[in-house]
Amino acid sequence: MADASKTSAPSATPRGIVIDPRVLFAGGAVALIGLALLAFFLWMVPNAAAREVKAACTGLRATGPALCNGKPCPLPMDAPNFTAYDHAGNPVDFKEKYKGKVVLLNFWASWCGVCKTEKPKLLRMAEDMAGDDFVVVGLSSDRNCADVLLAIVESLKPRTKLPDGEVSLDEAKQIYGQALPNGLPFTVLLDPPQGDDNIGQIATSWGIKAVPESALIDRQGRIRAYFVNKRDWDSPVAKTCLRSVIDE
To answer: Which of 48, 72, 180, 206 is the most buried (most CB within 10 A)?
Structure first.
Protein backbone atom coordinates (compact mmCIF):
# COMPACT_ATOMS: atom_id res chain seq x y z
CA MET A 1 0.00 0.00 0.00
CA ALA A 2 1.12 3.48 -0.64
CA ASP A 3 2.00 5.62 2.34
CA ALA A 4 -1.08 7.78 3.00
CA SER A 5 1.07 10.46 4.54
CA LYS A 6 2.78 10.99 1.21
CA THR A 7 -0.42 11.22 -0.75
CA SER A 8 -1.31 14.88 -1.48
CA ALA A 9 -4.64 16.25 -2.66
CA PRO A 10 -4.74 17.56 -6.18
CA SER A 11 -4.00 21.32 -6.27
CA ALA A 12 -6.85 23.68 -7.15
CA THR A 13 -6.44 25.71 -10.31
CA PRO A 14 -6.34 29.41 -9.36
CA ARG A 15 -9.18 31.44 -10.82
CA GLY A 16 -9.02 35.16 -11.83
CA ILE A 17 -11.15 37.81 -10.12
CA VAL A 18 -14.22 38.47 -12.16
CA ILE A 19 -16.02 41.82 -11.73
CA ASP A 20 -19.56 42.22 -12.88
CA PRO A 21 -19.68 44.94 -15.60
CA ARG A 22 -22.73 46.36 -13.87
CA VAL A 23 -20.55 47.03 -10.81
CA LEU A 24 -17.99 48.84 -12.97
CA PHE A 25 -20.72 50.94 -14.55
CA ALA A 26 -22.22 51.84 -11.18
CA GLY A 27 -18.81 52.74 -9.72
CA GLY A 28 -17.96 54.91 -12.71
CA ALA A 29 -21.29 56.69 -12.45
CA VAL A 30 -20.71 57.40 -8.77
CA ALA A 31 -17.21 58.73 -9.54
CA LEU A 32 -18.56 61.00 -12.27
CA ILE A 33 -21.24 62.34 -9.95
CA GLY A 34 -18.58 62.99 -7.31
CA LEU A 35 -16.42 64.90 -9.80
CA ALA A 36 -19.41 66.89 -10.98
CA LEU A 37 -20.30 67.82 -7.40
CA LEU A 38 -16.68 68.82 -6.72
CA ALA A 39 -16.57 70.98 -9.86
CA PHE A 40 -19.88 72.59 -8.91
CA PHE A 41 -18.60 73.29 -5.40
CA LEU A 42 -15.39 74.85 -6.72
CA TRP A 43 -17.46 76.99 -9.08
CA MET A 44 -19.87 78.01 -6.36
CA VAL A 45 -17.28 79.04 -3.75
CA PRO A 46 -15.84 82.10 -5.57
CA ASN A 47 -19.29 83.10 -6.79
CA ALA A 48 -20.72 82.83 -3.28
CA ALA A 49 -17.78 84.83 -1.94
CA ALA A 50 -18.34 87.52 -4.58
CA ARG A 51 -22.03 87.69 -3.70
CA GLU A 52 -21.16 87.96 0.00
CA VAL A 53 -18.78 90.85 -0.68
CA LYS A 54 -21.31 92.66 -2.87
CA ALA A 55 -24.02 92.13 -0.27
CA ALA A 56 -21.69 93.38 2.49
CA CYS A 57 -20.83 96.63 0.71
CA THR A 58 -24.43 97.09 -0.41
CA GLY A 59 -25.51 96.46 3.17
CA LEU A 60 -23.59 99.60 4.08
CA ARG A 61 -25.74 101.44 1.53
CA ALA A 62 -22.84 102.08 -0.81
CA THR A 63 -23.26 104.55 -3.64
CA GLY A 64 -21.09 106.73 -5.85
CA PRO A 65 -19.59 110.13 -4.97
CA ALA A 66 -21.33 113.16 -6.47
CA LEU A 67 -18.44 113.96 -8.82
CA CYS A 68 -20.24 113.36 -12.11
CA ASN A 69 -22.23 116.55 -12.74
CA GLY A 70 -23.71 116.31 -9.27
CA LYS A 71 -24.93 112.74 -9.79
CA PRO A 72 -23.53 109.54 -8.24
CA CYS A 73 -20.65 108.27 -10.36
CA PRO A 74 -20.39 104.65 -11.53
CA LEU A 75 -17.83 102.65 -9.58
CA PRO A 76 -15.01 101.82 -9.67
CA MET A 77 -13.56 105.16 -10.72
CA ASP A 78 -10.26 106.98 -10.21
CA ALA A 79 -10.23 108.97 -6.98
CA PRO A 80 -9.41 112.66 -7.55
CA ASN A 81 -6.07 113.59 -6.08
CA PHE A 82 -5.79 116.39 -3.54
CA THR A 83 -3.42 118.10 -1.12
CA ALA A 84 -4.45 118.35 2.53
CA TYR A 85 -2.50 119.45 5.61
CA ASP A 86 -1.15 117.61 8.63
CA HIS A 87 -1.21 118.94 12.22
CA ALA A 88 2.01 120.86 11.61
CA GLY A 89 0.59 122.61 8.54
CA ASN A 90 2.67 120.56 6.10
CA PRO A 91 1.04 119.75 2.74
CA VAL A 92 0.27 116.08 2.09
CA ASP A 93 -0.21 114.84 -1.47
CA PHE A 94 -2.82 112.11 -1.02
CA LYS A 95 -1.91 109.82 -3.92
CA GLU A 96 1.80 110.16 -3.34
CA LYS A 97 1.49 109.54 0.40
CA TYR A 98 -0.79 106.51 0.16
CA LYS A 99 0.29 105.00 -3.15
CA GLY A 100 -0.17 101.22 -3.20
CA LYS A 101 -2.33 101.17 -0.06
CA VAL A 102 -6.01 100.55 0.52
CA VAL A 103 -7.50 103.68 2.12
CA LEU A 104 -10.76 104.36 3.89
CA LEU A 105 -11.10 108.12 3.47
CA ASN A 106 -13.51 109.53 6.04
CA PHE A 107 -14.82 113.09 5.49
CA TRP A 108 -15.85 114.68 8.80
CA ALA A 109 -15.65 117.88 10.88
CA SER A 110 -15.14 118.88 14.52
CA TRP A 111 -18.52 120.65 14.57
CA CYS A 112 -20.37 117.56 13.29
CA GLY A 113 -22.17 115.71 16.09
CA VAL A 114 -22.91 112.65 13.93
CA CYS A 115 -19.21 112.44 13.01
CA LYS A 116 -18.32 112.28 16.69
CA THR A 117 -20.68 109.37 17.31
CA GLU A 118 -19.05 107.53 14.37
CA LYS A 119 -15.49 107.98 15.65
CA PRO A 120 -15.42 105.26 18.38
CA LYS A 121 -16.46 102.57 15.90
CA LEU A 122 -14.01 103.90 13.34
CA LEU A 123 -11.32 103.69 16.03
CA ARG A 124 -12.13 100.07 16.96
CA MET A 125 -12.12 99.02 13.31
CA ALA A 126 -8.78 100.75 12.69
CA GLU A 127 -7.27 99.14 15.80
CA ASP A 128 -8.28 95.75 14.44
CA MET A 129 -7.53 96.17 10.73
CA ALA A 130 -5.16 99.07 10.00
CA GLY A 131 -1.62 98.15 9.03
CA ASP A 132 0.99 98.46 6.29
CA ASP A 133 -1.49 97.75 3.50
CA PHE A 134 -4.63 99.41 4.89
CA VAL A 135 -4.93 102.90 6.37
CA VAL A 136 -7.78 105.03 7.67
CA VAL A 137 -7.55 108.74 6.90
CA GLY A 138 -9.88 111.33 8.40
CA LEU A 139 -10.20 114.50 6.30
CA SER A 140 -11.58 117.19 8.58
CA SER A 141 -13.47 120.25 7.31
CA ASP A 142 -11.90 122.59 9.87
CA ARG A 143 -9.85 125.76 9.86
CA ASN A 144 -7.41 124.77 12.60
CA CYS A 145 -6.00 121.63 14.19
CA ALA A 146 -6.84 122.68 17.75
CA ASP A 147 -10.55 122.19 17.08
CA VAL A 148 -9.82 118.83 15.44
CA LEU A 149 -7.76 117.54 18.37
CA LEU A 150 -10.37 118.60 20.93
CA ALA A 151 -13.16 117.02 18.85
CA ILE A 152 -11.24 113.72 18.75
CA VAL A 153 -10.80 113.80 22.52
CA GLU A 154 -14.47 114.61 23.01
CA SER A 155 -15.43 111.71 20.73
CA LEU A 156 -13.12 109.05 22.14
CA LYS A 157 -12.66 110.20 25.74
CA PRO A 158 -16.01 111.86 26.54
CA ARG A 159 -15.25 112.11 30.28
CA THR A 160 -12.32 114.44 29.64
CA LYS A 161 -13.01 117.95 30.89
CA LEU A 162 -12.45 120.40 28.06
CA PRO A 163 -11.88 124.15 28.53
CA ASP A 164 -14.47 126.69 27.45
CA GLY A 165 -13.72 129.21 24.73
CA GLU A 166 -10.85 129.23 22.26
CA VAL A 167 -7.87 126.96 22.90
CA SER A 168 -4.40 127.36 21.42
CA LEU A 169 -2.83 124.54 19.42
CA ASP A 170 -0.27 123.90 22.17
CA GLU A 171 -3.04 123.60 24.77
CA ALA A 172 -5.01 121.29 22.48
CA LYS A 173 -1.95 119.10 21.93
CA GLN A 174 -1.41 118.84 25.68
CA ILE A 175 -5.05 117.84 26.30
CA TYR A 176 -4.91 115.37 23.42
CA GLY A 177 -1.64 113.83 24.64
CA GLN A 178 -3.01 113.32 28.16
CA ALA A 179 -6.29 111.84 26.99
CA LEU A 180 -4.80 109.66 24.23
CA PRO A 181 -1.16 109.01 25.17
CA ASN A 182 -0.83 106.25 22.56
CA GLY A 183 -2.20 108.36 19.75
CA LEU A 184 -4.57 107.00 17.11
CA PRO A 185 -4.43 104.07 14.66
CA PHE A 186 -5.54 106.43 11.91
CA THR A 187 -4.40 109.73 10.39
CA VAL A 188 -6.28 113.02 10.47
CA LEU A 189 -5.65 115.70 7.83
CA LEU A 190 -7.05 119.21 7.59
CA ASP A 191 -9.33 120.39 4.77
CA PRO A 192 -9.98 124.11 5.49
CA PRO A 193 -13.25 125.58 4.14
CA GLN A 194 -13.23 128.64 1.94
CA GLY A 195 -14.84 131.89 3.05
CA ASP A 196 -17.94 131.34 5.18
CA ASP A 197 -18.42 127.72 4.07
CA ASN A 198 -18.49 124.90 6.60
CA ILE A 199 -17.48 122.13 4.22
CA GLY A 200 -13.80 121.94 3.29
CA GLN A 201 -12.60 122.82 -0.19
CA ILE A 202 -11.57 119.25 -0.99
CA ALA A 203 -14.85 117.82 0.28
CA THR A 204 -16.72 120.45 -1.75
CA SER A 205 -14.82 119.46 -4.89
CA TRP A 206 -16.07 115.90 -4.31
CA GLY A 207 -19.66 117.19 -4.33
CA ILE A 208 -20.04 116.72 -0.57
CA LYS A 209 -22.65 118.96 1.05
CA ALA A 210 -22.81 117.28 4.49
CA VAL A 211 -20.54 115.04 6.54
CA PRO A 212 -19.74 112.30 7.38
CA GLU A 213 -19.14 110.54 4.09
CA SER A 214 -16.50 107.90 3.33
CA ALA A 215 -14.74 106.46 0.27
CA LEU A 216 -13.07 103.06 0.06
CA ILE A 217 -10.07 103.41 -2.28
CA ASP A 218 -8.06 100.45 -3.59
CA ARG A 219 -4.32 100.09 -4.26
CA GLN A 220 -4.74 101.41 -7.80
CA GLY A 221 -6.27 104.63 -6.47
CA ARG A 222 -9.81 103.73 -7.54
CA ILE A 223 -12.94 104.40 -5.48
CA ARG A 224 -14.53 100.98 -4.99
CA ALA A 225 -17.38 101.96 -2.65
CA TYR A 226 -18.75 105.18 -1.24
CA PHE A 227 -20.82 105.64 1.90
CA VAL A 228 -23.07 108.57 2.72
CA ASN A 229 -23.66 109.37 6.41
CA LYS A 230 -22.20 107.47 9.37
CA ARG A 231 -21.59 103.71 9.40
CA ASP A 232 -21.03 101.00 11.98
CA TRP A 233 -17.42 100.40 10.94
CA ASP A 234 -16.87 97.83 13.69
CA SER A 235 -19.62 95.53 12.39
CA PRO A 236 -18.91 92.19 10.60
CA VAL A 237 -20.63 93.53 7.46
CA ALA A 238 -18.34 96.56 7.30
CA LYS A 239 -15.22 94.50 7.91
CA THR A 240 -16.22 92.03 5.19
CA CYS A 241 -16.61 94.89 2.73
CA LEU A 242 -13.25 96.42 3.68
CA ARG A 243 -11.46 93.05 3.74
CA SER A 244 -12.69 92.24 0.24
CA VAL A 245 -10.57 95.09 -1.15
CA ILE A 246 -7.64 94.62 1.24
CA ASP A 247 -7.25 90.93 0.34
CA GLU A 248 -7.20 91.44 -3.43
So the answer is: 206
**Segments forming the whole domain that contains residue 171:** 60-246
Phi/psi of residue 150, nearest 5 degrees? -65, -35
Contacts with 171 (C-beta within 8 Å, 6 or more apart), sequence order: 146, 163
Question: For residues 2 and 40, what is the distance between their CA atoms, to the nearest angstrom?
Answer: 73
Whole-number Å distance between alpha carbons of 79 and 87: 23
Contact predicate 215/80, CB 8 Å? no
**Does 101 map to a domain?**
yes
Instruction: Tell me the pLDDT band of 27, cut-offs 50, 70 and 90.
Output: low
Is residue 96 domain-resident? Answer: yes
Query: pTM of the prediction?
Result: 0.78
Q: Look at the chain and report how many structural domains it folds into.
A: 1
| Cis before 193 (ω within 30) | no
Give the CATH number of the domain where residue 211 resides: 3.40.30.10
In this predicted structure, what is the pLDDT of residue 60?
82
Domain contains 16: no
CB 93 within 8 A of CB 81: yes
207: nearest Cα among 197, 199, 216 = 199
Biggest CA-to-CA distance, the chain: 133
Residues 132 and 103: beta-carbon distance below 8 Å: no
Query: What's the CA gap between 219 and 69, in Å, rounded?
Result: 26
Amino acid at 41: F
